[in-house]
């Protein structure tokens, strides 16, 4: 397994395996108890319609780390595993796990 420093991921572009430019890595969200990375927090591409994607209260994309196919000069995201709102409506438990503490009060 190749180790990648989190600091090297800042501003790396996220692209789906179908060629959609999602945006750029802004931060990572960790599980405090296990240390596992849960989501990549990304600044969305200016041309991306974020209305169907899971975002935090600041409008940043929340991309589950389980959707990452590869990391290199860009991060390739499996579009079938990308969290979108229509999928999450059917699975409320998943939404809670992905959004975690990034949810704004009252949501």
Q: Provide the structure class.
A: alpha+beta
CATH class: Mainly Beta
| Number of discrete domains | 1
Q: Describe the main β-sheet briefly.
A: 6 strands, mixed
What CATH architecture would you give? Roll
The shape is globular
Number of strand segments = 6
Radius of gyration: 13 Å
Terminal-residue CA separation: 38 Å
**CATH topology tier name:** SH3 type barrels
> How many H/I helical runs?
3
| Percent of residues in helices | 10-25%
- Uncertain segments are 101-107
Structural overview:
There is one protein chain. The chain has 107 residues and is of the alpha+beta class. It has one domain (8-101): PRC-barrel domain (SH3 type barrels). The protein has three helices and six strands, in the order αββββββαα. The chain has helices at residues 6-9, 85-90, 92-99; strands spanning 13-16, 21-30, 37-44, 61-64, 68-71, 74-77. The protein has a six-stranded mixed beta sheet. β5 (68-71) and β6 form a beta hairpin. The longest helix is centred in the C-terminal third of the chain and has 8 residues, at 92-99. It is globular, with a radius of gyration of 13 Å. It starts with 5 loop residues before the first helix and ends in an 8-residue tail after the last helix. 21% of the residues are buried. Mean pLDDT is 82; it is low at 101-107.
């Amino acid at each position: 397994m190749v180790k990648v420093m989190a600091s090297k991921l800042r501003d790396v572009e996220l692209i789906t395996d179908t060629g959609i430019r999602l945006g750029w890595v802004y931060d990572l969200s960790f599980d405090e108890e296990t240390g596992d990375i849960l989501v990549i927090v990304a600044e969305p591409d200016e041309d991306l319609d974020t209305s169907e994607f899971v975002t935090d209260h600041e409008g940043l994309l929340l991309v589950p780390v389980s959707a990452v196919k590869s990391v290199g000069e860009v991060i390739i995201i499996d579009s079938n595993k990308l969290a979108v709102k229509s999928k999450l409506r059917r699975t409320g438990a998943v939404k809670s796990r992905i959004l975690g503490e990034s949810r704004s009060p009252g949501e």
